[in-house]
Amino acid sequence: xxxxxxxxxxxxxxxxxxxxxxxxxxxxxxxxxxxxxxxxxxxxxxxxxxxxxxxxxxxxxxxxxxxxxxxxxxxxxxxxxxxxxxxxxxxxxxxxxxxxxxxxxxxxxxxxxxxxxxxxxxxxxxxxxxxxxxxxxxxxxxxxxxxxxxxxxxxxxxxxxxxxxxxxxxxxxxxxxxxxxxxxxxxxxxxxxxxxxxxxxxxxxxxxxxxxxxxxxxxxxxxxxxxxxxxxxxxxxxxxxxxxxxxxxxxxxxxxxxxxxxxxxxxxxxxxxxxxxxxxxxxxxxxxxxxxxxxxxxxxxxxxxxxxxxxxxxxxxxxxxxxxxxxxxxxxxxxxxxxxxxxxxxxxxxxxxxxxxxxxxxxxxxxxxxxxxxxxxxxxxxxxxxxxxxxxxxxxxxxxxxxxxxxxxxxxxxxxxxxxxxxxxxxxxxxxxxxxxxxxxxxxxxxxxxxxxxxxxxxxxxxxxxxxxxxxxxxxxxxxxxxxxxxxxxxxxxxxxxxxxxxxxxxxxxxxxxxxxxxxxxxxxxxxxxxxxxxxxxxxxxxxxxxxxxxxxxxxxxxxxxxxxxxxxxxxxxxxxxxxxxxxxxxxxxxxxxxxxxxxxxxxxxxxxxxxxxxxxxxxxxxxxxxxxxxxxxxxxxxxxxxxxxxxxxxxxxxxxxxxxxxxxxxxxxxxxxxxxxxxxxxxxxxxxxxxxxxxxxxxxxxxxxxxxxxxxxxxxx
Length: 718
What we know:
The protein is an alpha+beta fold. It is built from ten helices and 41 strands. It has an eight-stranded mixed β-sheet with strand order 33-34-36-35-37-38-39-40, sandwiched between helices. Strands 4, 5, 6, 7 and 8 form a five-stranded antiparallel β-sheet that branches.
């Protein structure tokens, strides 16, 4: 059995970092002022308001100084390099993406040899890739791998492929076009696009963009007036025509889709509700008016497929666990809709793919993926059997019998299967092998534990099969709980390092996600947000009560909304955790809506401008505003953020870290790790991911008082 050993005697925690004569870490002085503002009569101190100016010289100097302290601390952990080497080895395996058949007759697929910073897009004459050639290699777009290929979009005639890129992790998107027959890059280049793909019609495509931002505020200023443009190939972006905008709603997103036969243009609007509006125009008739299918953004209306003048729409209308309906835009009223896949009784319908003359309907049952085959008439035919708890993704197309799906779980690297629509058979197609790792050595269980109000919360617990509930196991507890996002079982090679060293990985499916439909989601939003934090705290208490661990060995981690979760729970129960990793978190709940797209989160959080009650509620749990300053011992905390994060701007983490360091919360370290040329997380180069996890795991093991002994060691006799 793999193991970890005590290391407190080996190296004192206080010996690391820049320390004064008392042994405490000396943190840099943060830019500060005396800002106090008023919200519905409540006075709110904002001492570190200057850190919101991410381009100021004082902020840059503070960032540099903080990174020096953090780097110095981490560099002195003796096993950090060994962890980095092992993480590199765990990532050194071929990762295969799902193949799909393009309209030019070629098969396309992504592949990564394991350590390439970005996955490469290949094409071949067959799905097996026997004559595969590189089609787009994003690794050649930058020297350091920080340019990510974020999407590819083929024209309906197969002549062109538009592709989107992101630089340094930013949400800002650029669009380029390649001629598929020759691989020639065209001159077309779109800038300042965001939250968009390329929806082809004729010799051009629709895309969504904002106006060019003010210089110096590209990554912080609020994004308003999202517009849909049409770009004709061979013309400059300045000549692009606005296809859709709503000048009355500056805080709406607009996304375009085009029917397979280019008969319909569909515009989805979002940004201020749990769902989206839906408008349709007939592209076959010049000057055709817009038809409103759904005006409210409080209901989900997502087109899955459109052809022959009809739309198949994934919706929450009259279905909080979702369903699939067929809609004729000529008769858009709900009484005319035809239900194709009904809302399930004991699961959540999560989406659909068209394959041949069938529909693959995807469901979540207790946070794990299921899939069934349906006929176009809505008749349920058979289930696609998966090996265990896990997550599946499909590659399928209407009129094409080539169906592939991927499956992964906590300890199952993604494997690709070929599915026979006629027989229902799944055949292994491509799999992955990781050196010194055997999935059979690990088990995953699902448990249901009571939250503070008695609600049963599901949680996956993954461990080596020999780990016993003897109270001595380090536990890594992860959560999110928001924005209708489910936490399904997924694979991460980086997580294996924790597991192979005797650690337990626990993933709690908190309210606020979509695991049980819209009711579950709303139970974790706005004035119900405390439910999410209570669910997470209850997960930790359950793991202790069941004998898996103890507070001295418990680490919590979460990113984005999950960073908020970690920050809030640390303030509420600092005694329950030894280490906390809030990553790219929303930490200032009073001002989050003033930056980039923060206003888009109001439907989950509410804002301090809504009402006195909402403002008071936010202030009472906001991580930044509720840090103890009375000597209460806090866990060891390492905050992470990045300089190009324009989703959750780094000011959140800056202000939170500065406040932590200035408060009396005990002697455990309160560090911040600020990555450069990186964003919210998507598209991060493999090398940066490995660096980050080496730092995170080093920090965790060291502050648990443990040293990892690698994948081959046996458990030490205590």
